[in-house]
Design goal:
By secondary structure, the chain is an alpha/beta fold. It has helices at 48-55, 76-83, 102-112, 117-130, 146-158, 176-187, 200-206, and strands spanning 6-16, 23-33, 37-40, 63-68, 71-72, 86-89, 164-168, 192-196, 209-214, 217-219, 225-227, 240-242. It is built from seven helices and twelve strands. A six-stranded mixed β-sheet has the order 6-7-8-3-9-10, sandwiched between helices. The chain has a four-stranded antiparallel β-sheet with strand order 2-1-4-5, with helices on one face. The structure holds adenosine-5'-triphosphate and magnesium ion.
Length: 243
Amino acid sequence: MTQTSSIIKLKDISFFYPGSNTKVLDHLTLEINTGDRIGMMAPNGSGKTTLLHTIMGLCKPESGTIEVFGKLLEKEKDFIPIRSRIGLLFQDSDDQLFCPTVLDDVAFGPLNLGFSPQKAITIARNTLKRLGIEEFEPSVTHRLSGGQKRLVALASVLAMAPEVLLLDEPTAGLDNKVKKKLIDILNGLDISYFVISHEYDFARAVTDKIYSMENGKILTDDDIQIHRHEHVHKHGKHPHIHK
Ligand SMILES: Nc1ncnc2c1ncn2[C@@H]1O[C@H](COP(=O)(O)OP(=O)(O)OP(=O)(O)O)[C@@H](O)[C@H]1O
Ligand SMILES: [Mg+2]
């Protein structure tokens, strides 16, 4: 049996946005271990994006502990090295893409990791090819469509060869053909990932377990049963939770 080890461990995390007295995360606990492929489905505003930003040190919790790759992260400087090892796909692609062209955007991460400009460009080109979007290479990023930007944002994350992926609604704006490609790509990865999605079929296709969030806490498989079936109650054939 292969040994699993902890990649991300959040314990007792509570978080408020400044000026607000609503606890978005309330004594939340989460573990992501090697081999985990976890889905997260929860209502709008339940705190999913905030959770990912907390892991990356972009939201600073009032209480609790964050341990990543076995290290306790407390100060801003503790988070800097882990940001290049965790691939965060932002919910909004415009938060991820800021270079003039697609090639620059995808090469930016590898350059930052210390690769030579030539090597960074090779990595970027290979990543674009892997996603089947090599024709976007010379495009002006901000002129791409929403779905095209989504793919470029994903390429910019994968180009950094992260050790774990945190994906915030990766399929938003993607057509079925591209979604299918993304399913194949994720299923072909040998790293752990945590993927937020409102699409049950997609989440099922790429993960082994689906969590939810309620009142600032994670509900795991043991607490909930998210599924899709047709029956008479009000949720009809939409994915829903039976507690
Ligand atoms: N920058 C901010 N300042 C103040 N409140 C915020 C900020 N960002 C989010 N919130 C609030 O925090 C709560 C959780 O937001 P979050 O974006 O984490 O939800 P989410 O589960 O990702 O939602 P969605 O499914 O719509 O993406 C919401 O009530 C939201 O209004
Ligand atoms: Mg969100």
